[in-house]
Structure formats: C-alpha cells, structure tokens
Amino acid sequence: MEQNKADWQGKNRRKTPIENDKLYRTMVGVNVFGWAVFIAALIVFHYARPEFISGVQDFWGVTGRQQWSASLSTYLVGLLCGCVALSLSVLVMKRKRTRRKSDNVGLNGLVLLLVASLSLVILYFEFN
C-alpha cells in the first residue's frame, strides 16, 4: 500500500532551514555558553596563579605571592569541570543530530573538551 506524496500532510524536515531547528539552536547556545565559561576560567586563572617576580623586582625587594590562591583555584577547577560537562553535552547533541555524511563535524565542542581536559590534567599535576 503506497501513499501518494500529495496526500502526505506532515512536515518535510529535510527542507527545514537549520536556523529553525530547535536542537541545533540549543546546541549552539550551549556551545557559546561553554566558551564563555572557558573565558571566565582564563580570567580566574590569571588571578589565581603565582605572581611573576622579575629580576628587577627581586633586586628592589618587591614581594609577590609565590603560591596559587586556594580559593580562586577551587573556582578555576569548577569552571573547567563545567566546560568539560558543557562540551560533552554539545558532543552528545551533535551525535544525535548528525545523521548524514555531508553534515559538518563541528570541532568547537571537541576543541573545548580537549583544552579544558588538558587544563585540568595540568592543574592536577601542578597541585600534586
């Protein structure tokens, strides 16, 4: 029993613009939010790390913090874990949405996952 295409009353999703796809819009929003969290982590990293004391500052007796800020380091690890979670959710959504060979790979989520994961590993070895 074959149906005629003229009788079909559904919506042709293959011709729906990508901007109207709710899953795609959610995925882009989560991806942008993940990168914003990563930028916040970079700002926290700047203030949490030990201060650099140059030779001139050492000669003049200028003191600086030689260790990581404990409270800011906790925030840094939390932000980086959030980046990993957000990028994993983007990759899961991308996996659900991508069905054809012609679909884009979408490297943003993968790059964010790799950079945040490597940052967490480096911080782990820095503190231990």
UniProtKB/TrEMBL annotation:
The chain crosses the membrane at residues 23-48, 68-93, 105-125. This is Uncharacterized protein. Keywords: Membrane, Transmembrane, Transmembrane helix.
